[in-house]
Amino acid sequence: MYRADYLQKFVQTIFEKIGCLPKEALLASEVLISADLRGIDSHGIARLAGYVRLYDHDRLNPSPQVRIVHETPSTATVDGDRGLGLVVAPRAMQIAMDKAEKVGSGWVSVRNSNHFGIAGYHAMLALDRDMIGWTMTNAAPLVTPTFSLDKLLGTNPLAVAVPTRSQPPFVADFASTAVAYGKFEILQRQGLPAPLGWAQDAEGKPTDDSNAVKSGGGLLPLGSDREHGSHKGYGLGAIVDIFSGVLSGANYGPWVPPFATAGFMAAQAGVGLGTGHFLGAMRVDGFRPAEEFKDNMDRWIGAFRKARAIEGHQVLIPGDPERESEAKRRQEGIPLLPPVVESLVELGKRFGMEFMSL
Question: What is the pTM assigned to this prediction?
């Protein structure tokens, strides 16, 4: 178990070593470790080596000039200058919230960025300003749409954060696939199979091989197959891709440049600039008094908490598992698998640091 502050400081220092400004390295480390704290290990410090790999292959600009290239009072397109998505996305969300403050809602599309960590972090930035936050991003093509043998979409997650009064906020943060690819990486590190319904093999057949994507197969959309609603997951992923990529001028579909997943893959010539995101903020009082809304959100959540549940289970509100994980891990520490520790030890050696191997 590792203390969150220790891991965050290590991440911050690594980002500074590759050329990030201290303030931006701090922000990036906060976003990355927030994933580990919230129990989303697939998107936390385990991905640090991947960001460094992007830098090594000249796919990442550690000191980007993030700028607005097109805007109206309520919308903007931001160019991330190949920066860390961990930094670009919070900046874009700030622009969306500032616009919402003035005109009721703000919507920002982002091009020329990179992997932005967990979508929920950026959506939750809106909560302190009594706003509803929306975030989504496209990703490397690892997903086979319903009936397809070709990988045409990414895991393409989205998140929505809604403020409340006394109840914990509503935070839905999920991929448009059965699971994020990072779950496969965790299984690969442990030498374990994957549950059926997560992926298909190169011939389009269900498989429990956690290395299936590396062997010509693909991730399955949310729903897994047509009989269980995979066309809905496919549609959801397509919507995220259009909002994040086509709308912003980023790459989209099979042209989205890869992160360091399934082994490092060189970026092919694309149809746009980098990875794309879409972020939005809506002022609650643009629709009704904020305090009334938050009271009603508490009542809405309360009804679900009082619901009768199947024996041995309880009805959860989106955001509950992550909130409970964060409370526990801040107290007890963050668990890291041995392969992740090994990668951090190697990164430390490269940059003249020592990572504490327990």
Answer: 0.94
